[in-house]
TrEMBL record:
Listed name of the protein: dTDP-glucose 4,6-dehydratase
Lyase listed as a keyword: yes
Catalytic activity: dTDP-alpha-D-glucose = dTDP-4-dehydro-6-deoxy-alpha-D-glucose + H2O
CDD domains on file: dTDP_GD_SDR_e (cd05246)
Record keywords: Lyase, NAD
E.C. number: 4.2.1.46
Family stated for the protein in its record: Belongs to the NAD(P)-dependent epimerase/dehydratase family. dTDP-glucose dehydratase subfamily.
Gene this protein is translated from: rmlB
Cofactor: NAD(+)
Domain of life: Bacteria
Domain NAD(P)-binding: 4-332
Species name: Moritella yayanosii
Alphabetical GO biological process terms: nucleotide-sugar metabolic process
GO terms, molecular function: dTDP-glucose 4,6-dehydratase activity
Enzyme class: lyase
Amino acid sequence: MKILVTGGAGFIGSAVIRYILSETDYQVVNLDSLTYAGNLDSIPATLLSSQYAFECVDICNKEQVDRVFLQHQPDIVMHLAAESHVDRSIESPNCFVETNIIGTYNLLESARVYWLSLADEKKAGFRFHHISTDEVFGDLACQGSKESQNGLFVETTAYDPSSPYSATKASADHLVRAWCRTYGLPTLITNCSNNYGPYHFPEKLIPHMILNALNGQALPVYGNGLQVRDWLYVDDHARALVLVATKGQIGERYNIGGHNEKRNIDVVNSLCSVLDDLVPDKPDGVEHYRDLIQFVHDRPGHDLRYAMDASKIQRELGWQPEETFATGIRKTVQWYLDNTAWWQRVLNGDYQLTRRGES
Ligand code: NAD
């Protein structure tokens, strides 16, 4: 079995590749253009073998994407490549439209032509798995009239994206569904809640707070910090994704979540408590890490609450998260303490020099 993973140098894609390389004998091709968010240091050299190949390709480059399909002949595509940071999408939406919409369209078209060219047996087994977000459903706090169950997003909740990021991800989801319904391309879609864990790029909430705290810098919390997110440990997500990609029902959607609804301020306070516990030698002038918290201007259009009902994937595929928020957050902080070389290379830009497994 050969899996083509797009965005495999990113936070979640690299977790998927680490999982495939360490837990399965599947071949994996990592297709990634190595934007600022792509980091090949996130796939340790010790895991690399002939099981792995890397293609430095932009999904917006149709010719190159076509070549990768022909050269590598994948059985499954797991599509994670995306521009993923909401704040950046507000500042510069253009590359979000390019990668998340046009790039997904290119990939679908390349996949469709490749799939049609396959011999019957391989054609019957082909699967295209699109990885998406709970943010496509919009703000649960304003969903009085919307279909949701016990105040949670279900697979049939109507799309109502708020940010340029979530609008482009919603567009991509719609394209994938259309390619399934119109052309019969065997697709699956997963929508997942906020991930956290090792190898997370420091612009995102949890690593940003950990690294600022360790450096004695302010911990900026948007608005009043009461925004609620459902948090999932990234390795639990990676396991769910490989399960859906290989065993999910074609044409279906699966919500994935951690059953860990937390207000942002509570996430930051939990991080501070774990840091107080694990790092007794604090930066000068810091008695408790929570003293560094500072409330800053809220993000425009900030959704107040997302929460997932992940009962379908549990019921149909037997997946459930292994980490609770308490265990996952402690593991995450410990990982950043043990892996200073990884994040220092991100902060000083050296990570962009790494090139591994190129085919
Ligand atoms: P990330 O930003 O860490 O990684 C994205 C990867 O895609 C990077 O390696 C980047 O180099 C690559 N990439 C970007 N544009 C590309 C292009 N044009 N061509 C080829 N590669 C390109 O993102 P992530 O957090 O790992 O998210 C992965 C996927 O999961 C995304 O589709 C995202 O929408 C989805 N998702 C993320 C979360 C989360 O909490 N991070 C939650 C649910 C869903």
